[in-house]
Design a protein that fits this description.
Layout: H1 5-12, H2 27-43, H3 45-63, H4 82-85, H5 87-109, H6 114-130, H7 141-149, H8 153-168, E1 192-197, E2 201-206, E3 212-214, E4 218-221, H9 239-245, E5 250-255, H10 267-285, E6 290-295, H11 297-311, E7 317-323, H12 342-355, E8 357-358, H13 360-370, H14 372-385, H15 394-400, E9 405-406, H16 407-419, E10 429-430, E11 433-434, E12 443-449, H17 457-461, E13 471-476, E14 494-497, H18 505-510, E15 513-516, H19 519-528, E16 534-536, E17 550-551
Parallel strand pairs: 4-5, 4-6, 6-7, 7-12, 12-13
Antiparallel strand pairs: 1-2, 1-17, 2-5, 3-16, 8-9, 10-11, 13-14, 14-15
Helix pairs in contact: 2-6, 3-5, 5-6, 10-11, 12-16, 13-14
Length: 559
Amino acid sequence: MAKNNDDISQEAAETPNVLSPIVGISREDLLSAFGAIAGGAVRHPFTVMQHMGAFGREVVDIVSGKSELKPEHKDRRFVDKAWQQNPLYMRLMQGWMAMGSEVHGFIDALELDRVEQGRAKLVADIFIDALAPTNTIIGNPSAIKHAIDTGGMSLVNGVRNVLDDMRNNHGMPSQVDKKPFKVGENVACSEGAVVFRDEMLELMQYSSTTDEVRAIPLLFVPPQINKYYVLDLAPEKSIIRYLQSKGYQVFVVSWFNPTIEQSHWGLADYVEALINASSVVMSITKSKSINISGGCSGGITTASLLSHLAAKKDTRINSVTFWVCVLDPQPEDSDVGVMVTKRGIEMARKRSAKKGILSGSDLSRVFAWLRPNDLIWNYVVNNYLHGNQPPAFDVLFWNNDSTNLSAALHSDYLALYEDQPFANPGTKEFMGEMLDLGNVTVDAFIVGGVTDHITPWKACYRTVGMLGGKKEFVLSNSGHIQAILNPPGNPKAKFFANENLPETAEEWAATAHEVAGSWWDRWSDWLSTRSGELKKAPAKLGSKKYPPMEAAPGTYIHG
C-alpha cells in the first residue's frame, strides 16, 4: 500500500521534536528567554493590551457559556467526563486554554528572531503546562473522586511517593516501578558470556541456538548514553534472541559507566576500544571480517570507526547497520533545535568539564523538562494526586537505568554538532586521518522511526547521502525506542520501504510503500546475504585465547 509524503509527515507530527538533552538548556538560555518576553512586553505595550483584551473577552464568553474552546482529542489530561459535564471544571479548563492561546499569540506578535522565539516559546510552554489545572488536587476531578473512593488513602500514598522521590529519584517523579525487574534474570537474560574485558568495555558473545551459523559475525555497538540491554529486554522483544534463532553469531559491547576518573575518555578512545573488540570477535570466530551495527550515539562512534578504518585501508568491516542515528543534526530537524547556539554548546561543554562527566540523572532531567507533559506532569498526576505506583514497564526500566558521558566524549559529540564533519567530508581530522564517510564503501542498512522525537527520521535519512557503498533505508512506524523493539508477530507492526534512494527524505517518502510486519525480517534477509556461508555452530563460547570470563550480562551493566 503506497504511503505519500503528507501521510508520513502527518504521523511524524504526532510526536513533537525536541532539543537534544546532550546540549541541554543553560541558565543563560532561560534568562534570555525571560528577557525576550519581558523586553517585548516593554517595547510593545499596545500588543500586550491587545492580547489582554482578547483574553478578557474570551473569559466573558467562558463565564457566559459561549466559549467554543475545546482540548485536542489526544490530550489525555481532560478525558474525565467532568471536564465536559461539570460547568465549573469546563470553565476552569477553558480559562487555562485561553491564557495559553494568548501567551502564544503575544510571543508570535513580537516578531522575535528564530532563536529568541524558540527559547521564548519553550519557556512559555513549560510554565503553561505547569499551570494546567489537572496538576493540582482541586483542579483534577479524577484525583478528587479517587480520594473519596479510597477514603483518603490515595492522598496518603501520594505523599509517600513524593517523599520517596525526594530521597531516591533526585526530586523527579518516578516513571517506572523498578521492583519487578532484575537485570540478568528477567531482562538482559539471553544466554551468553563475557569473552573480553578492558577498562572501557566488556565484549559478550551469545550462545548459538541453531545447529548452523553464518560465518561472518555481527557486533552491536550500543549508545554510550544508555546501557546495551535495550537489545535484550523481555525474551519476546529481544533482538539478540531473534538473531540467535536466525543463525547469526552475535556479539555485543557493554560500555563501562564512566565516573570522574574517566573524564578524559574521548571519541578516539572509544573507537580504539572498538578496534580491539572487533579483533577479538574475528579471533574467536576465525572470520576475516565482521558486520557491525550501531544505534543512536553508538552509531556516531561506529561511523567514526568506519571512516578511520577506511582511511587506513582496513577491510575488517563487511557491512554496517545504523538504527535511529543522526550523523549531522541540523536546527531545522526539530521545533526547538534552532535554540542550539554556539554559546549554549560552549556552556554545556564547560558544565561537564567542571564536573568531569555529564551525569545520567542530569540527562534525564533535562530531557524530561523538554517534554514535561509526558515525562513529568503525567507522573505527578498518577503517582502523587492519584497515589498510584508508576507502571512496571521494561522499556521504562531500561530508559531509567541511565549512564554518564565522560566530559571528553561529551565535548567531542558537541564538536561534531558544531563542525558537521560527516556532512562536510575532509574538513576535520580524527585519529590522524580526515573524517570522510564517502570512503566507506561497505553496504549499509539504515533504520529510522516515523514518530522519533530524538533522532528525527528525515535526519536519519541524510546518512544515505554520506556513505559510499550500497544502501537501504527503512522507516519503522514508531518512535525512538519502539522503532528498535519491533519483533515479528505484532499484527499492528509495519514499516515503509523504497527501493529508490532519491536525494531528499521528502522525495523518498513520496514514493515509499507500506509493508506489513517487522523490519527485523527484512533486515535479517539483507544481513543473511552479507554474513557468509553456513557452518557448524560453535560447541562453546569464546576460544582458547579468549575463554569465557563470566555469564552475560557481565559486570559493567551493573555500574
